[in-house]
Amino acid sequence: MAKELVSRDQVRVEDTWDLSAMYENKEAWEADIKFINEKLAEVGKYQGKVCESAENLLAVLELSAIAEEKFELAFNYAERIFDQDQGNTEHQSMSQRMFALYAKINAATAFVSPEILACDAAVIEGFIAAKPELELYRLQIKEIQRLKAHTLSAEMEKVVAMTQEMGNTPTEVYSAFKNVDMTFPAIKDENGEEVVLTDGRFVPMLMSADRRVREDAFKAYYGVYAKYLNTMAAIYNGEVKQHIFNSRVRNYSSNLEAAVDENNVSPQVYDNLVKTINANLDKLHAYVSLRKKCLGVDELHMYDIYTSMIPDAAKTVKYEEAQKTICEALAVLGDDYVALLKEGFANRWIDVYENKGKRGGAYSATAYGVHPYMLLNYTDTFDDMFTTAHEMGHSMHSYYSNQAQPYIYSGYKIFVAEVASTCNEILLLEYLLKNCTDKKEKAYLLNHYLDSFKGTVFRQTQFAEFEKTTNEMVEAGENLNSENLCKLYKEINEKYYGPDMISDDEIAYEWARIPHFYYNFYVYQYATSFCAAVAIADMILKEGEPAVARYKKFLSSGCTDAPVELLKIAGVDLTTPAPIEAALAKMGEIMEELKTLV
């Protein structure tokens, strides 16, 4: 019999998150939705009057912030409930209502920025001087003024806001199709037992030491995607088109420029990453050659890329053991940091294991005023321990920023979002290496370190290159379809992995399974953040408390400055290629050390 996933009601309560910190019940959630709508009605009373007085400006900013803060909480609650079982129709409805309310909030507040921009800057300064409470909103107003060239009239802003709910449709369709409707066959595991393939089990099966299991999982999994490539291409084409529509409406030269400008980042940072990585693909090619040698195969296939290069060294890590190890490894960040980790583990911040209908992957999510929440699909692998440390990094970043900043400045920009999470992973790895006495285990850890470079720096840049190219194709008037997407993806894959890798036909379908392509130029930040995290972890381990203090100041800074500037607080300057080049040099050192052990 194949091992089926358990249903949600069969999961142990202690392994699920406790959402009562947000709302005790659905009735309380409904009450906040009513409250939000009331505040939006009050905001509307100021349309056309925002800059008539300091009192009006303050009132509209305060009301908007109150409505948005409450919405963040209500949205978080609905999405966490939805993600724990996406097949539940009541939960689907709650999620859909939140996206509708989000569009309503944007439409209801659409007049605010245009009216502020229409007001002379000197008048705004006079309002702030006359009404000291407005000082809190100075940075927010400055950010509105920064985006003046891309802000439309109040009427046009309202129309654009009304398209947002419709614009989210491709993401909703993709999520429902991938996480609920798609089903995968069973394959035989290492013991000859039938196991049903799922998103959560796919990568662990590719990590198997048994090559037959890896190949069977690879071909069976992508065999299902092969049936739906036209559907997936149509969904992705719609996703790209709606983002390009928004970028053109807002007078950007490209969707890339629009996406990175949300974080006050230059497109040159993106292009510099792709250019620098392409100039250093020899390091990934060397990694592939080393992998081929370590595995002792005549041909290295894409289904060989996840399994450890060090045979028989992979070990299972139970969730309880992972918690203990993570707390020990991150002790370098101070007692306060470890106390928060333990609180999260003990007090059900985390939804731990996979169940039927649960969203795949892992994430951290937060709403102001309550602790963060984490979704995992823990399967007792070594990688799962690192995923847990990674998501805890996100959670701690949110916690520190929420504690230090008022709501309007608490949300750190996406550009720095992956720094804290990746720094945790690197500190965990360095801790394990330092305390390792077994040669084979050390080789395994070095292999994992190299895999982190492969997966986070090179793979995410590979994704970034694919995403940029697909957007440019649509911007040039071309439609995306299964044929050109598969062709492009395979060509980029072959370039990145080099001559020692067999790019199997199935790898051309991989683009269809990557949810991050629906995050609009998100993935490049994994690579830049990894390089920043390598530098920060190195400073923490070498300098100790001074570096930790700088790092915590960065964690607490929210969005109080441009993200590139905030990273400088922690000691990293991503306006130069230096952090990327230093990280790649570190990869070279690790590769040479591993060669001496194998």
Model description:
The protein has 598 residues and is mainly alpha-helical. The chain is built from 25 helices and seven strands. It has two domains: 11-167, Up-down Bundle (Butyryl-CoA Dehydrogenase, subunit A, domain 3), CATH 1.20.140.70; 168-314 and 414-598, Oligoendopeptidase f, C-terminal domain (Neurolysin, domain 3, Orthogonal Bundle). It has a three-stranded mixed beta sheet with strand order 4-6-5, with helices on both faces. β1 and β2 (194-196) form a beta hairpin. α20 (439-475) runs antiparallel to α25 and α22 (524-543) runs antiparallel to α23. The mean pLDDT is 95.
Give the count of structural domains.
2
Please estimate the helix content: 55-70%
- SS-based structural class? mainly alpha
Rg is: 24 Å
CATH homologous superfamily identity of the largest domain: Oligoendopeptidase f, C-terminal domain
- Contiguous helical run count: 25
CATH topology of the largest domain: Neurolysin, domain 3
In round numbers, the mean pLDDT is 95
CATH architecture of the largest domain, by name, is Orthogonal Bundle
Low-confidence stretches: none
Number of beta strands: 7
The description of the largest β-sheet is: 3 strands, mixed
Alpha carbon gap, first and last residue: 39 Å
Beta-strand content bin: under 5%
Enzyme class: hydrolase
Domain Peptidase M3A/M3B catalytic: 205-584
Cofactor: Zn(2+)
Domain Oligopeptidase F N-terminal: 115-184
